[in-house]
Amino acid sequence: MAKRRIYTAPGSQVVDISTGTARLEKLDGEADSYVLHVNGVPSSSITLSDPQRLDFEYLDWMRRAIDVELPEGSLRAVHIGAAGCALARALDAARPGSKQTAIDIDAALLDFARQWFDLPRSPALALRAGDGAAEISRFRPDALDVVVRDAFDHDSVPPALQTGQFFASCAEALKDSGLYLANVPDAGDHRVLKAELTALGDHFRHLAAATEPGILKGRRHGNVLVLASNSPLDAAGLDRSLRTAASAATFLSGQGLRSRLGL
User: What pTM was estimated for this model as a whole?
Assistant: First the structure.
């Protein structure tokens, strides 16, 4: 494997992007770790010298889910909502030969991410500016191993990425063994989470969710990982991996998921 180049990102700064502003914040006491804020929302945590380090707990959960469901070999993955491409960097480092596409509505943000961070070049990682809801339909049917939706308009998911048509396009682009992963913001009432799971159920046969117990119990706001596939999920393997994560997550699938959320 070729030696990776290490870029030196600048110190903390604020720049104008297509949708507003981005702020790159250097972490105190860290030689080369940064948090990228997009329109005031923490969107990526990047350590230049260690692409497999994922400080955001939901990204670690996503990587664990991929490793359980697709344990070997290179991947064809699409990331809708690129930001700093933290998960794409981690997968590229762990899965040589993978081909990934990161899509973001903000062309200027993609330019800064390429400038600041050690991003693999195409075809290992292609950056595409565009609306993820439209772009996902451009991929061939049964072509993708993984689709990740991690896109936000400030602190909520763009409505176009929550529609039945979007979920149908994701299901069509994924192989039967493929995995759909989404970062769903939860305000404690599970309203958005339940709506997304219900809509996904029209296009995927197997659904699951994982999050911290406090979020699941409605005690605080936070991120919920939603999983969907047209092949059975390895519930035991996912539960075991997510329970042993640095930020342990409760995993729910099948009847347990339906009962817990009242689906």
Answer: 0.94
Is residue 175 within a helix (H) or strand (E), and if so which, with residue range?
A: strand 174-186
Query: For residue 159, what is the DSSP state?
Result: G
DSSP assignments along 3-34, one per residue: PPP-----SSEEEEETTEEEEEEEPTT-SSEE
Q: In what order do the strands lie in the sheet with 20-26?
A: 13-17, 20-26, 33-38, 41-47
pLDDT along the chain (263 residues), means of 10: 51 90 93 94 95 96 98 96 97 97 97 93 97 97 98 91 97 98 91 94 97 83 94 97 96 91 80
Identify the bridge partners of residue 125 per DSSP, sorted by sequence position.
100
Cβ(136)–Cβ(80) below 8 Å: yes
What distance in Å separates the CA atoms of residue 218 and residue 231, rounded to the nearest whole number? 30
Enter the tokens of residue 35.
Answer: 């948090």
b/e burial code for range 169-183 (CB count within 10 A of at least 16 → b): bbbbbbbeebbbbbb
